[in-house]
């Protein structure tokens, strides 16, 4: 399009030495694109997606003598101390009736089971966006302490080799990864 339309229009000059078709294209682009890339749109988005959620989170955490803030601080401190003890087993994929299932063992040591999420992560590629699939805790692993089997179904759109396994922190009131950057990838 650049080579065959836009650039020739720029060099196609009228008697007044002005590229009228090119200027029309520029003006049409400005009309179409300015609302999407304006400071006003950016400011509204920033307020809506950053400032207001942060203000609401602060208000919620400040109530009741900052009980929620203290809870999140204690949760964060515990995870930072215990995070290196997480162990993941081998990720296995099985196919059942056309559905691809993933399962993996996860040992959390002294980390509470509701303080983490076990996820499959696939990077974006030329045909699909990035994808995060939260695996569900299926059952306790016999003979283990705080060890569980995590399971989930994946789409056949991707190859199983496109998924990486990870454990990330979870707290319903925490903003992840801003407030806790712990992440454990399966090697």
Notes on the protein architecture:
The protein is α+β, with helices and mostly antiparallel strands. It has 2 domains: 2-33, no CATH class; 85-185, Immunoglobulin-like (Sandwich), CATH 2.60.40. It has 3 helices and 8 strands. Strands 1, 2, 3, 4, 5, 6, 7 and 8 form an 8-stranded antiparallel beta sheet that branches. The two termini are 45 Å apart.
Give the end-to-end Cα distance, rounded to a whole number of Å: 45 Å
CATH architecture of the largest domain: Sandwich
CATH C-level class of the largest domain: Mainly Beta
Radius of gyration: 25 Å
Name the helicity range. Answer: 25-40%
* Mean pLDDT over the full residue set: 91
Count of extended strands: 8
As for the CATH topology of the largest domain, it is Immunoglobulin-like
How many structural domains can be distinguished in the coordinates?
2
Q: What oligomeric state do the depicted chains represent?
A: single chain
Shape: flat
How many distinct helices? 3
What share of the residues does DSSP label as strand, in percent? 25-35%
Write the layout of secondary structure elements.
Blueprint: H1 2-11, H2 20-33, H3 39-82, E1 87-88, E2 92-96, E3 99-107, E4 116-122, E5 131-140, E6 147-154, E7 163-169, E8 184-185
Antiparallel strand pairs: 1-3, 2-3, 3-6, 4-5, 4-7, 5-6, 7-8
Helix pairs in contact: 1-2
Provide key terms for this protein.
187 residues; alpha+beta; Immunoglobulin-like; eight-stranded antiparallel beta sheet; 3 helices; flat
């Amino acid at each position: 399009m650049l080579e065959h339309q836009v650039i020739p229009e720029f060099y196609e000059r009228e008697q007044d030495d002005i590229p009228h078709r090119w200027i029309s294209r520029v003006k049409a682009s400005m009309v179409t694109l300015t609302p999407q890339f304006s400071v006003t749109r950016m400011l509204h988005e920033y307020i809506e997606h950053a400032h207001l959620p942060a203000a609401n989170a602060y208000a919620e955490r400040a109530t009741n003598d900052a009980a929620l803030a203290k809870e999140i601080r204690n949760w964060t401190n515990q995870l930072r101390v215990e995070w290196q003890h997480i162990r993941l087993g081998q990720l296995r994929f099985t196919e059942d009736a056309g559905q691809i299932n993933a399962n993996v063992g996860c040992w959390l040591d002294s980390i509470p089971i509701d303080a983490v999420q076990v996820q499959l992560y696939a990077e974006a590629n030329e045909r699909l966006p990035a994808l995060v699939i939260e695996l569900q805790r299926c059952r306790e692993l016999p003979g283990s302490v705080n060890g569980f089997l995590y399971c989930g179904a994946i789409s056949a759109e991707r190859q199983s080799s496109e998924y990486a396994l990870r454990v990330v922190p979870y707290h319903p009131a925490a903003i992840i990864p801003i407030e806790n950057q712990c992440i454990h990838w399966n090697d």
